[in-house]
Amino acid sequence: MTHSLTPGWALVMALAVCPAAQAEPDEEALGKSLGYPNGPRWTAMENRVGAWSALDRVPGVLTENVARGNSVLPLPQASVPAEIKYRYRNLGYTLDEYLERRRITGLLILKNGEIVAERYRYGRTEDARFLSFSMAKSVTSMLVGAALQRGLIASLDDPAGQYAKDLQGSAYGQTPIRHLLRMSSGLTFTERYDGQDDVSKLSRSFATGSPTVASVLRSFSDRHSPSGQKFVYASAETEVLGRVLTGATGRSMAELTSEWLWKPMGAERDAFWCHGRDRQAGAYFCFNASLRDWGRLGVLMAKDGKLGEQQILPADYLREATDAALQPPAFAPYKATPYFGYGYQFWLHPLKERSFGFQGVYGQTVFVQPATGIVMVQTAVYAQASGHQDPEPYAERAAFWLGVLQSLGGRTERY
Question: Which residues, including other chains, have CB under 8 Å from residue 287's CB and lie 6 or more apart?
């Protein structure tokens, strides 16, 4: 005799066999029930997931495409899966528990160019092109190195105004490119992320064109310290570097990124830069790329700019940009900041083994340890822009990085 289950009992049995989907942190506040929209208020909490993974679809945002080439650098799956564990506040966690605890939209971990872990959250997929925020600063530095390699920038000791003609005669225009790379112009520029600081003023001019970005940059003239002596984080300095690049080459940041990085690197998808009303890209905050292509940038940096037989970026420049041992004392870890050092638009981790990162507000990160081939990419929608406002997610991210290094044979001895 056969028995059939009623629809109600069938549902009960199905739920018993298949566990309920794990809710993602703050998913309703982040717009899940609205389909993760990407409305024009793209920093609003309910728009962050949607907008920060498809900023080119946000009304009013101006963009320029970064074309990929014909060949793609393979990122094969690692043959043996790794078990990632870490400790935070005396408790042990796994990679999946990290994702359950923090507002991560994408996570990619590579070892020697192979994918150890790849996760997408909040409905994101491999097609998403994630907003850099200040990770764009490191991309800008890579382009400066490429321009130097080609002789389009003669020397890092040249004043910015030699190339950025709209800044000639201004304090930023008189500042050497090297000092801008190290964020050491000495010019007073506030960056508190409270809506009332200088970076907010700069970003409003970028979005509206009134006043122009160039006029805002020209308005800064007070120096709190001599140029080149002290690290003080200032997004304006990267925006000046973007104008140095376009002035030195006569080409847009998107064109330069495509020719000098995206095509030779073997990017998988087109990327894009956002630009202001003056068509100048937001060098300090607005590059957008897929998770895997962020990983490829990390692989390129891990190999000191060389893929196969092609030296895409100058190795000497990249080492100066990323090696804590090559920085003046004031820019070393524990000196530039209480934790990180600072190179040429790269954050330097306080580890004896050269380790550095691209970093952006709200949790964006690419971590690179060249000697061990470890690259980690994280995109996120943290509630607060910086660890000064909310230290917990940033502290746990640092613990997670350490755990990944320990799990994959990385080197963790302190600087």
Answer: 131, 132, 135, 136, 139, 257, 271, 272, 273, 281
Report CA-CA distances (Å) from 110 to 107, 331, 353, 367: 10, 28, 17, 10
Q: Does the pLDDT value for residue 388 go beyond 70? A: yes
Q: Return the percentage of the chain with pLDDT > 70, whole number.
A: 95
**For the structural domain made of 66-121+128-407, what CATH number should be given?**
3.40.710.10
What is the distance between the alpha carbons of residues 252 and 279, in angstroms, rounded to a whole number?
8
Alpha carbon distance 380, 364 (integer Å): 6
Could you read off the pLDDT of 9-28 as tens digits, one per residue? Answer: 333 333 333 334 579 999 99
Decide if 190 contacts 197 (C-beta within 8 A).
Answer: yes
The CA–CA distances, whole Å, from 37 to 49, 101, 109, 150, 300 equal: 8, 23, 28, 43, 33
Entry pTM: 0.94
User: Smallest Cα–Cα separation from 374: which of 311, 307, 295, 291?
Assistant: 295
Q: Are 353 and 364 in contact (CB under 8 A)?
A: no
Q: Is 210 helix (H, G, I), strand (E, B) or coil?
A: coil
Tokens 């979005």 -> residue: 207
Domain locations in the chain?
66-121+128-407
CA 293 to chain CA centroid, nearest Å: 12
Structure tokens that stand for 91 in this block: 């408790």
- Helix (H) or strand (E) run with residue 376 in it: strand 374-380
**Could you give the CA distance from residue 109 to residue 368 in angstroms, rounded to a whole number?**
10
> 65 forms bridges with which residues in the sheet?
272
Task: Identify the CA nearest to 184 among candidates 136, 233, 140.
Answer: 233
Alpha-carbon span 72 to 268, nearest angstrom:
5
| Proportion of the chain above pLDDT 90, given as a percent | 93
